[in-house]
Amino acid sequence: MLRIGIAGLGRAFGVMLPTFQRDPRVTLVAAADPRPEALARFEADFGGRTYETVAAMCDDRAVDILYIATPHQYHAEHALLGAAAGKHVLLEKQ
Length: 94
Description:
With about 90 residues, this protein is an alpha/beta fold. The protein has helices spanning about 10-20, 35-45, 55-60, 75-85; strands at about 1-5, 25-30, 50, 65-70, 90. Helix 4 links the parallel strand 4 and strand 5.
């Protein structure tokens, strides 16, 4: 089972969510977002842990993969945080 932590719970996450839900090899275990309402929704929907920052989520040993769905200006910072924490990093750019 691949345990995914989501960085950013906005539109990009919403687009990718159906793919995650259809794949029996993955589970959503954590999320980071600055919005309390988004974190509460994630907890209610997936039962995962939540964090106010991506850096805090990267310290979670239960996260294998960091899926970056934050605004573009944060992509490099968040990818480096994930790599420094030994996480696999999934970042889609268009």
